[in-house]
Specification:
Elements: H1 3-7, E1 18-21, E2 26-29, H2 35-40, H3 45-53, E3 104-108, E4 115-119, H4 125-132, E5 136-138, E6 154-161, E7 181-189, E8 196-201, E9 206-209, E10 212-215, E11 221-224, E12 227-231, H5 243-254, E13 260-264, H6 266-275, E14 279-283, E15 287-289, E16 294-296, E17 299-303, H7 305-313, H8 323-341, H9 344-347, H10 350-363, E18 365-367, H11 373-384, E19 391-395, E20 398-400, E21 410-412, H12 417-425, H13 433-447, E22 460-464, H14 471-482, E23 488-493, E24 502-505, H15 510-520, E25 527-529, E26 533-534, E27 540-546, E28 568-570
Parallel strand pairs: 5-18, 6-13, 8-19, 22-23, 22-27, 24-25
Antiparallel strand pairs: 1-2, 3-4, 6-7, 7-8, 9-12, 10-11, 13-18, 14-17, 15-16, 19-28, 20-21, 24-27, 26-27
Helix pairs in contact: 6-7, 6-10
Length: about 575
């Protein structure tokens, strides 16, 4: 493709249109005007004053090779004619750039997955519109969240499908596949962004797939019947199941709610690794895999494109040649991708940022709630807040399926899997469990300092906002009989469901709130200063709303989560596949 078609202007490469502004330290997208516009458009007084305001500081000599705005001129493609300085575009004065703290975004995708950094500036509006046109979305209805919240914990299901779409993929995967969930990772990001967990779900895990409502192209709805005791990978593609069905399957079998999904096919890993100019991998011994066509020497290598895809698809050369060992290799690959994308070499390269933006948006299918590029950027920036040392990779604990004589599938390990799921639901880090517990204990102690009312003086209305049915009544009985909170009552269901249990109280009820927090094991963050509500006797009372995290009457909410002893790795460590 020639430069004019790519850059839409006078032999200018689009990568060359991102220039560093030394006054702000930010990269800015400079859309070069056509030669005709530059020659004919008269310079208005407004344009002249704008140029004067953006000139170098008074008394400072212009830097050699710089324009009057203090920004270095665009790099000219070899052989291209000299260009005039950027001027008006379409008769309008140049847009003044403003520093944008959220300019660089880290977008994480997985399975056949990768990380991408998207460069954004105020002048990049039309380019963002172009990127948005690249993204494919799927309506998953009630399977996911209706929007993305930057203030809450969130979970994204990342699906790598084995569908044989795209150029050069005819020889991969199952020829009859409608696009199964070949590689699946549940990425959960804690509310305080202190940690994140990437939980791999084996494709051969035996699960129950629930009935799944799906949207057809004509807008009508079709319910795909569920299946009991089948492989997890059948939750996608088969019978018309969409990613929402895979999200529902995860919820059914782990109890973890999934907010969003990102799905990619074989092309994603090829295009994204090429966009970053390769990913570093390490193997303990030479690899010459005839099935995947992967050939690597022992030690470190850099892979991209077809070779990168072969690396994440290879099974026969690692471990026991099974899917569980391939999952470990993919986790190591993703850790390397993350380190590459966080490197200064990528962050300071405008051409890499543009290439990644194009490749990532074309490679992804996402739910409608995050289908806008601006929202994808928000997701990326929230993930970017998590230290790489606290991003854990682990796999759902499983054991061989006891119902099979020839072991081909696995089932949940009943002694470990529930603990893993509970840790994820409670935002517990797999890397710094003890430190996290101490931090929560200290914060709780600091917030609960002060006098406490007697239990008999605590007035509270109890509502159920997502706990198991009957929880409000059982809590009422416990508080009255066991704890002496006799001025309590069951107020039925809350107006909306909550992920976390909360206690709302008026300023003059702080001493009552502290006492009830002690009894219930409520953290400082669960206490919500607000207004009281009259109880059935017309007396002001606090409101205790039992959320989805409620563990049962008499069970303190701050009881330490039992940690699971599972194999894990972190994004900051280099490991070699074996």
């Amino acid at each position: 493709m020639d430069a004019q078609r790519r850059g839409r202007g006078d032999q200018m490469d689009p990568a060359d249109q991102w220039v560093l502004n030394p006054n702000t330290g930010e990269y800015e997208l400079r859309l070069n005007p056509s030669a005709a516009q530059s020659r004919t458009a008269p310079r208005t007084a407004t344009a002249r004053s704008t140029a004067a305001r953006s000139a170098a500081p008074r008394g400072a000599a212009p830097r050699e090779g710089a324009t009057r705005t203090g920004v270095p001129p665009q790099r000219r493609r070899r052989g291209a004619p000299e260009e005039p300085p950027p001027g008006r575009r379409g008769g309008r004065r140049p847009v003044q750039q403003k520093p944008n703290k959220a300019k660089r975004a880290l977008l994480w995708t997985g399975g056949t997955m990768a990380f991408v950094l998207v460069g954004v500036s105020a002048a990049g509006y039309f380019y963002l519109q172009h990127l948005e046109g690249n993204v494919t979305t799927t309506d998953v209805g009630s399977a996911g969240a209706s929007n993305f919240s930057k203030d809450e914990a969130f979970s994204v299901l990342i699906i790598g499908t084995d569908k044989r779409t795209g150029e050069g993929n005819g020889g991969y995967g199952d020829k009859g596949s409608s696009g199964h969930a070949d590689t699946t990772i549940l990425l959960h990001v804690a509310k305080d962004r202190s940690n994140a967990t990437a939980l791999s779900i084996p494709r051969d895990l035996i699960v129950n797939i629930p009935d799944c409502p799906t949207k057809l192209e004509d807008g009508s709805e079709k319910v795909v019947p569920g299946n009991q005791g089948v492989r997890f990978n059948r939750s996608l593609g088969e019978g018309g199941r969409d990613p929402g069905c895979t999200m529902r399957t995860v919820k059914e079998n782990t109890g973890i709610s999934v907010d969003h999904f990102m799905m990619a096919d074989f092309n994603a890993v090829k295009t994204l690794t090429t966009a970053v100019e390769g990913v570093d991998v390490c193997v303990e011994k030479p690899v010459n895999d005839k099935q995947s066509k992967l050939v690597l020497p022992a030690g470190e290598s850099t892979v991209e494109g077809e070779q990168a895809l072969a690396f994440v698809r290879t099974r026969k050369s690692f471990g026991n040649s099974g899917d569980l060992d391939r999952i470990k290799v993919q986790q190591q690959f993703l850790g390397s991708l993350m380190r590459k994308m966080a490197s200064s070499d990528t962050l300071t390269s405008p051409s890499k940022l543009l290439n990644l933006a194009e490749a990532a948006t074309k490679a992804l299918t996402v739910d409608q709630a995050i289908g806008k590029v601006s929202t994808l950027k928000d997701v990326a920036l929230e993930l970017k807040k998590v230290p790489t040392k606290n991003i854990s990779f682990t796999t759902v604990p499983v054991v061989d399926n006891p119902a099979e004589r020839v072991k081909a599938t696995v089932v949940l390990d009943g002694s470990k899997a529930p603990q893993v799921f509970d840790m994820i639901q409670n935002d517990v880090s797999f890397t710094e469990v003890k430190q996290q517990e101490k931090k929560e204990k200290d914060a709780r102690a600091a917030r609960l300092k002060g006098t406490k009312a007697a239990a008999s003086e605590v007035r509270v209305r109890i509502t159920n906002g997502g706990a198991v049915a009957g929880s409000a009544q059982k809590t009422l009985q416990y508080l009255q009989v066991e704890e002496g909170v006799t001025k309590s009552e069951n107020a039925g269901n809350a107006p909306a469901e909550l992920a976390r249990t909360t206690l709302e109280y008026a300023p003059d009820q702080a001493d009552q709130a502290r006492r009830l927090a002690d009894i219930m094991g409520l953290s400082g963050s669960a206490l919500k200063p607000g207004e009281s509500v009259n109880n059935s006797q017309g007396v002001p009372a606090m409101t205790l709303t039992l959320g989805k995290d409620f563990k049962g009457a008499g069970v303190k909410l701050n009881a330490p989560v039992e940690t699971a002893d599972v194999e894990k790795s972190t994004a900051d460590k280099v490991k070699c596949a074996s």
